[in-house]
Amino acid sequence: MDRPLRLIAGNPLDQLARTIEALLVIASAPLSAQDLADAADDHPERVETALGLVGERYQEGRSGIVLEHVAGGWAFRASRDAAEACARLFERPAQRNLSQASLETLAIVAYLGPCSRPDIARIRGVSADSAVANLVERGLIAEAGRDEAAGAIRYRTTPLFERVFGLESLSQLPRLDDVGADTEQIRERLHAVAEQRTA
Amino acid sequence: MIVRELELDLDAFEGPFDLLLTLVLKDELELREIDVAGIVLAFLERLSEREQLDLEACGEFLVLIAALLELKARGLFPEEAAELAELEPEAAAEELARRLAEYRRMKQAAGWLRERLETEGERYFRLGPAPLAPRLETPLAPQQPETLARVIRLLAVEPPQVSLAHMALRFPPVSQFLDRFRAVLRRRSRFDFDAEVRELSRVEQAVAFLALLDLRRSGEIVIDQAAPFAPIRVARAGEEFADRDERTASWTARSA
What we know:
The complex is a heterodimer of chains A (199) and B (256).
Chain A: H1 14-26, H2 33-40, H3 44-57, E1 65-70, E2 73-78, H4 83-89, H5 100-112, E3 115-116, H6 117-124, H7 129-137, E4 141-146, E5 153-157, H8 159-164, H9 180-198
Antiparallel strand pairs in A: 1-2, 3-5, 4-5
Chain B: E1 7-9, E2 14-16, H1 17-25, H2 36-48, H3 55-76, H4 80-85, H5 89-119, H6 145-156, H7 174-187, E3 190-192, H8 193-197, H9 202-217, E4 221-225, E5 232-236, H10 244-255
Antiparallel strand pairs in B: 1-2, 3-5, 4-5
Helix pairs in contact in B: 2-3, 7-9
């Protein structure tokens, strides 16, 4: 006796989840939920839900590929336990070897940007020219218009910066501790020196 | 301890302090690139190696480093020099404190970024060229179907047949002109080539000229031309252009 085939009712979002996987695997930069919805020709809400399914499938410890929310979008990366193998296959990315001068310049642009080279030099006390050129070359900062008053080129961090540092967005940068106590101490000492000079 | 012999190992300079000062004074080294704090650290390290405090060296060092700092400050903020000089000492101290505090915060931020790089160093991801450009949509303004149809109908009209007649070159045989010129020369001892071929098409004229050259090669005729582009005169071989000068004059006059 022929039995009717039993249909296995899968998750209705499975097809969309597979499409999202495909889109993420060909993308070289993070894709926002809207980008994915446009490409998949589906509703952003359904895409968000499907991303949940994809995220479950590709989580740390479960697969060699990990889905992460980074730089304002979704992207695949290698799992951490494959890092050593990845390192043997590829050189350490240039974005990760940064000098102290570059890191300080990057911090200023990330926290205070968009800002110009004179702004950076004013804070660091040394010329920012080479550090800025270096960061631009590595793709961590980019030009962002000109200073209206002085006409100097201003810089901001790029999505690559957020990706390298594993940030969902710049708002994930930590609040800087208030260095109030130190400032007060410095101020007192400077006032004392000023009084001596005027005396 | 001799301050000038202090060995420095900075990002922008490596060598004795004395050489650094010389290079800076000669404008061969950008003071902007020099980390003055690095020089102070190097000096303090050397100082701590000794049991006794070398006051003379400290004094000399302070004078040199102060001068260096002033030069550097002026170089970094040329436009601010006047502005800051006008500040009251109290306000200047306030401004300096503000800047130092800001720098300290940024150093702290840089420290956080360094830690983050270390903890996130195991994250490998694809770094490719920019993603493919999104497909551009060029929305059309609302169109009247009738207008569109009319325009398309204009485009759909069969284009007029282009005549290719000029491309079908028919070359008459050279022998045809050989016979013709021989016949002319039997009747007359000489003739004017241009006048003879005037009625022919360009292709026929070209073939006629080939025939002329052929006759010349076989020694049947003599060719003469008074000047470039002047009429070509053809005569039976053996017939000299006896009256050359008069004839040339008359032909030249005719061709003019």
